Amino acid sequence: MLEDKKDNIFLSRWVNGELSPEEFQEFQSHPEYEYYTKIIAATNTLDLVDYDVDEELTKLKSKRKTTPAKNKPVIKLLPYIAVAASIAILLGVFLFNANDSFSTSYGEQLAVTLPDGSEMILNAKSEASFDKSNWKNNRTVSLHGEAYFKVKKGSKFTVSTTNGNVSVLGTQFNVKSHASFFEAVCYEGKVSVKNKQENKILTAGKGFRAIANKPSELWAFITEKPSWIDNTSSFRSVPIRYVFKELEKQYNISIDTTNIDNNIIYTGTFPNNDINVALKTVFSTLDIQYQLLDNGKTVVLEE
Amino acid sequence: MSDDKNSTCNERAFDHFFKSHAKLLRSYLYYKFGDLDQAEDIVQDTFIKLWNNCSKVPLDKAKSYVYTIATNLGISNARHQQVKFKYQNYITQRKNDITNESPEFVILEKEYMEKLKSAIADLPERQREVFLLSRIDKKTYKEIAELSSVSVKAIEKLMHKALVTLRKKIGNI
Does residue B132 carry a pLDDT above 90? Predict the structure, then answer.
């Protein structure tokens, strides 16, 4: 193609405008000239996606500070939680940093990074603990309450509760265990659920629930993460007493249910950040009258 | 030592050094190893290394230090996986000012650009590196030669070769 140009840096010199006028004129009449011109013209319109140097520097600085503390569990509050975070949470973080148990109070959430980088987000009024020193060999979290897990791939990961165990190899799932209520929901991968009576495998988009003495049930869903992460509690055919429990945990109130039947089945949602909307949503759909007493700490229900 | 403004331990000197070198280092690594995300990670890791060793690396040696470290990190990563140069979405085309072209022309032009980009992706590593540093990052042959400590002549040869290779790949369109 350019065999007559013996010079092995000819094109480099051309691109740089270093050819002599004679050389340039000769090249222009060469049949190859237009093809090379086109390559250069087209390449000149190319660009590489932007690089935000300032942002990268900020990222670098945050890494620089955290590198020495590699093996400590990092406790971080998600941005929207940080807004709602009370001094109590901060206190909790400092108090619980030393050992390996974490707990949340009424209406709080807490994001915890486990030693292997797996994440656990605790919902309100929940407790979780694990053995940090033996984490490599034994990835087990004891849970009382509700938490959402994003597990890093690795050895078996188990969430142990009084109602049963949920174990996985690496996936995202939610576990809720209170008194006689046990629920596990799988968002990604596969989890195995085991309680006294049963052993079930859940694939992504499947949930398992066992309430008191009733037979357990399985269902399918399409959401990608539990709604409480975004500050909404949601229920699917749940006896109303468990909905009241959740209201109590989110808002630090107590609900007096003596006048109503607390076995009504409820399907619906309520927000975790606005008590008035939450109470209205739940009770108006059930056609229940309610009254707030004791500075809004007690809710009395009447049919 | 750490208060010296010519030391990489000096925060302001370090920041300035990062800002003036990170972008080109990222391009260099991308053209060389073909993976932009990996290139950005390596830039981060390299500068963390520089910071951790700042007392041993004076500012005037820092540039060749980061290029050496980054290249080594890239090589040890690339050994595990032979990455094909990923140009899609990363190398973009600047918007053309002329929009009143005929649709056929626009389509042909688009086809040509795709062909060009895949020909660039198929270039041997060194040729691609030189060609893109020169054309996209607008670096002179001398600047490119300094990055990989070779002669300007070697860079000129690579540039010439890259153009010949591209010309053969693209054919007569």
Answer: yes
Give the nearest partner residue to B167 out of A1, A16, A49, using CB atoms. A1
Residue A166 is inside which H or E element, if any?
Answer: strand A164-168
Model confidence pLDDT, tens digit, residues A153-198: 777 888 988 888 888 876 788 898 887 888 999 888 888 888 888 8
Q: Could you please state the CATH topology (level 3) that the domain comprising B99-170 is classified under.
A: Arc Repressor Mutant, subunit A (1.10.10)
pTM comes to 0.49
CATH class of B11-80: mainly alpha
**Which numeric CATH code is attached to A101-227?**
2.60.120.1440
The ranges assigned to domains in chain A are: 1-98, 101-227, 231-302
What is the DSSP secondary structure assignment for residue A69, as one 8-state letter? Answer: G
Question: Are A105 and A137 spatial neighbours (Cβ–Cβ below 8 Å)?
Answer: no
| Cα angle for residues B142, B93, A33 (degrees, 5° grid) | 60
In CATH, what class is A231-302? alpha beta
The ipTM, to two decimals, is 0.85
Q: Which residues of B touch A36 (CB under 8 A)?
A: 163, 167
Residues 47-106 of B with CB under 8 A from A: 47-48, 51-52, 89-94, 96
